[in-house]
Amino acid sequence: MPTLVADVLKPGSLAALTQPTLPAEGLTLRPWRLADQPVVLAAYSDPAIQRWHCRTMDDDEAAAWVAAWPERWSTETRAGWAVTTDGDEVAGQISLRNLQLIDGQAEVSYWVLPAFRGRRIAPRALEALAGWAFGTLGLHRLEVRHSVENTASCRVATVAGFAAEGVQRKSLLHLDGWHDMHVHARLDTDADADTDRD
Description:
CATH class: Alpha Beta
Number of strands: 8
Low-confidence stretches: 193-198
Mean pLDDT: 93
Strand content: 25-35%
Helix content: 25-40%
Order of helices and strands: EEHHHHEEEHEHEE
């Protein structure tokens, strides 16, 4: 059945690009490397990351998770970056998931390792990724969804210019039951994330 609305982005728009390395105010977002597997394993052993991301990994799963990113990029299902310090130490991750190029939308996921929390790493990474997703890739809308109990993620989204839009009731199952989820979003027409942020 023909659509009456033009695609925001044509299939192949992401796959045609080489995954970039992005600067982020003293941080770097770079593609994952196989050597990062121990960091991923440690991350998914952290109770806070397990709580909000609802998963854990063993050695093989962490290696497979890292190795899968190039295929996710080429099939345009997800795009993920290691968030690193100036010394190329992995401090966290950020990714686009639920990519819908035809609709120009994606959801953002992020976590920060315990030793790096409290340094504004996630908001800086989110601002950088949003700038690239809107400016280079050409997406129209990015969303952040988090449990209403995850106040740290709420702060990250707000600081990065993602407006709170509402609550999805009992939307995601966690270990302790169904959680209401906050929805934040940023549009390509919103003000630049780098202006007037704390």
